[in-house]
Design brief:
CATH topology: Growth Hormone, Chain: A
Strand order of the largest sheet: 1-2
Number of domains: 1
Distance between the termini: 6 Å
Order of helices and strands: HHHHHHHHHHHHHHHHEEH
Number of helices: 17
Largest sheet: 2 strands, antiparallel
Radius of gyration: 24 Å
Strand content: under 5%
Shape: globular
Helix content: over 70%
Length: 385
Amino acid sequence: MGEFVKRGLDDEDELIEVGVAIVGGGILVAMINVYVFTGADGLPQAEIVRLYKQVYLMALVIPFVSVLGVGVAWFLQQHHMRQLRQQGFTREQTNEMVRERGSLVEATKPNWWILGGSLAFVLFTLTVGFGGFSYSEEIVFVGSMAIVLFLMARLVRELEPNKRFTLVGTAVVVFIFRAIPGTGPGTTWWMIDHLKFDQQFLSILSLIGSTLTLAGMFVFRRFMAERSIAYVVGFLTVIGTVLTLPVVSMFYGLHEWTASITGGVVDARFIALIDTALESPLGQISMIPMLAWIANSAPANLKATFFAVMASFTNLALSLSQLGTKYMNDIYMVSREVRDQASGALQTPADYSHLGSLLIVQLILGLALPFAAIVFAKFTRFKSA
């Protein structure tokens, strides 16, 4: 990764721009949440659900703007063509100049293996999703993983052997890091019920997290460029583990102890705010070094294809993370109190007795799994970039 310093950071700059766009969308949604949930503390559950519906409807402006960008690009292209025509160029000359302006240095040919595999991926997912199969999530994950691995196997043939092994090793490290299971909704339920975090405060935490993540992309830009991906993932793993400890400790009463010795200043909300502020700049940056390596190493006419397939591969890691979260919640069951809206009768009692064990197991997995992947990359031929 150190070659970024010598060869320039143009490709990385473009990836940072993509990251800014993604995190910017998260900031916009967080701001909407803060606005909608202002004064929502104490509202009945039905009213809270109605506010969530408003959030989802308002967030639709983000994909609308994305689609609108296509129309704006077409309009700008037509405007440019009209300017060329006014300068005296013929229609044929104008079309040729516009095509040359948007063309690649190296001609791109369709890869029918990739297109066919992508079509199979979509059809398979839709078939299983609408088929009502048992274990549909597991079937979709296994089938999708098989298709994506097949596409990756076809792609890496375009690379030299040493780069091929490096790409595989790098992908494994990032995949495992992103596949770490979470604790599920039980932690949020516990924060709302026991720590008295309302939806507005949780939205503020999300806004702080997204904003500082955006800043972290620029603050840690040089750090990511000058170190290997394995080093970056190891660093993020250690820091993430340390910053998870306050949440685990609060389940066992840390906030009560700190509040008692600070006159109520360092309470649960104070700890949550500080923990979020420290952890957020490190979020969402693990993908940038790998994508930057692809930008420097993939063939010029296949960069977009490499990006698409590797993004699909790492997104499958998030699917595996969700499956792992589901399994962990089946083992360490956490339930929130549910009452009938009409009669108020208790339907499901609250049970957070297993949440402590869930938090500890997730903490251990979050530390052990990434380092196992780093060891794999270090002591096998599949080196990390």
